Amino acid sequence: MQRSVSAALDARVDQATTVIFSIAAAPGAEFAHEVIDYRIDGEPIVPVEVTDAHGTRLHRFEVPAGEFTARYEAVVDGRAALAPVEDIDLIRYLRPSRYCESDTLFPTAVGEFRGLSGKQLLESVSSWVGSELSYVPGSSAPTDGAVQTLLLRQGVCRDYAHLVIALLRALDVPARLVSVYAPGLSPMDFHAVAEAYVEGAWYVVDATTLAPRSSLLRIATGRDAADTAFLTNHGGNLVLTRLEVTAVADRLPDDDLSRLVQLR
C-alpha cells in the first residue's frame, strides 16, 4: 500500500512565540517522498526536531510576529514497523491521565464489561462507545475528558478515543492515544484512535469506524490528547486561520471489524 498525506496550516502571529508542531509521520515507514516547510512572512524557518520515546517527531522553533505557514507532505510505501512493546509503557498506559479518567469510570467499565478480555473486550468496548456516543463536530471543548464525553453522549474522534482508553485502563488493559493520518476519513482532518495492548501486542481501536484501521499512518503517540496535539505555542499569541489535511491510499482496504489490526 502506498499512502500520500499532507497538512497545510496558516496562522497569524501577533506576538513572538515558541511553536511546537507534531504533523510529521512517525519514523519506521519507508518514505518515498517527504517535504517539511515552515515560513514566516515567506522566509524559511529551520526547526529543531525532537523525537520522543515513541518516535513522535516534534518540530520546535521561535516565531516572530507575522504571517506563518506550515506545509508537510509525505509519500509512504508499504507498512511501517510494528510498535515495540516496552515494559514502562505497560505501566504508564494503565494509569489515569488528564483526559482519560479511568479511576472515575471504573464502576462503569466493570458494570458493562465484567468477565471480558482480549479481543472480545476490545470489540465490546469499541461497539459500546460507538453506540453510546454521537459523532457531532464542534460538540466538545478542548478540555473535555472521557467523563464529560460520556455525560454529553457526543463528541469527535479524540473524545471517542479518550472514552475507549479510560474504560480499557479501568479493566487493567494498557491503552494509549495515537494521532494519525487517515485515508478514507470523511470529513478529512487529523484523526485520533486508541491503541490497546492485548495478546502481547498493540492493536488499534477506533470506535468511530470512520476510516479503515489498516490504512492509518501514525503521527504521535501518548497518554491522551495532551501528548499528541498537532500544534502548541508558548509565550506569545498565535491564531490559526487555515487547516487543510489530506490522506489517500492507492488501495483503500476493507475494514473487517471482527479482526484485530495493528497500526502500521
Main features:
264 residues; alpha+beta; Immunoglobulin-like; C8orf32 fold; five-stranded antiparallel β-sheet; 15 strands; globular
Describe the structure.
Strands 4-3-7-1-15 form a five-stranded antiparallel beta sheet, with no helix packed on it. The N and C termini lie close together (11 Å). Helices cover 20% and strands 39% of the residues. The model has no long low-confidence stretch (mean pLDDT 96). It folds into two domains: 2-79 and 230-248, Immunoglobulin-like, CATH 2.60.40.2250; 89-227, C8orf32 fold (Roll), CATH 3.10.620.30. It is α+β, with helices and mostly antiparallel strands and 264 residues long.
Strand content: 35-45%
Overall helicity: 10-25%
Number of domains: 2
CATH topology description of the largest domain: C8orf32 fold
Q: Which regions contain 5 or more consecutive residues with pLDDT less than 50?
A: none
The top-level CATH class of the largest domain is Alpha Beta
CATH architecture of the largest domain: Roll
Short recap of the structure:
This protein has 264 residues and is α+β, with helices and mostly antiparallel strands. The chain has helices at 89-92, 106-113, 118-132, 146-152, 157-170, 225-228; strands spanning 2-15, 17-21, 30-40, 43-45, 48-51, 57-63, 66-77, 134-135, 154-155, 175-181, 191-198, 201-205, 217-222, 231-234, 237-249. Helix content is 20%, strand content 39%.
